[in-house]
Amino acid sequence: MEHVINNIGGSGIFIQVGAGAGDLDSGVSFHDGFTEFIKKLPRERIKKIILVEPNPINIPKLRECWKDYPEATIYELAIVPKNIKEDTVTLYYEKDDGPHFQVASIIKDHVQKHYQNKSEFNTFTARTKHLEDFINEITKEEIELLALDIEGIDAEILLDIDYNNLKVKFLSFEHLHLGNNTESVLLKLTNNNFNYLGNGVDYNGYDHLFARF
Fold first, then answer.
1. Taking the model in full, what pTM does it have?
2. What domains does the chain contain, in order, with CATH numbers?
3. Which residue, 69, 210, 199, is CA-closest to 146?
4. Which of 48, 121, 152, 168 places its Cα 20 to 30 Å from the Cα of 17?
């Protein structure tokens, strides 16, 4: 992935939805593929870093993670499918997933799937945005890399997008939970001139990388 993006280049605008605590989450051995990729880039390649994270617990660590990058802006938001019209949404998380709750989701079943022996979950509330609206509010330029890890709703978000209204060169997203929507997601991307390139930003290899040139 790094070789492809570095050789092709782009606008220098990078967006991560589901930023967590960046590379300061001890629960995943201080790894975050997006963060590690960006921090390896020459500084002149970076124009904007947009980080979206709904969990207020993670925001202090996320700020610390990116403190040396004035190009980085953090938004405490939940990106939701277009069928959700409310201004806020409830997210569920299990305390054993601490300290930074990687599996927090608007879908309770998604959390239960990871913690099947649990019956009680904690919650927090976050402001909502639809992905297209959010990106078009912050920039009209092409996004060099959009990385999505939205815990259980990746397929809904990917199928929601009108790609004629969103200029994205590289798209990285978690494929583990696409479920019955896998074929529909891949077909939509293909129909919008995206090509599959291999693994995306996730350091475990859980992301697909697509590109549109």
1. 0.93
2. 2-81+126-211 (3.40.50.150)
3. 210
4. 121
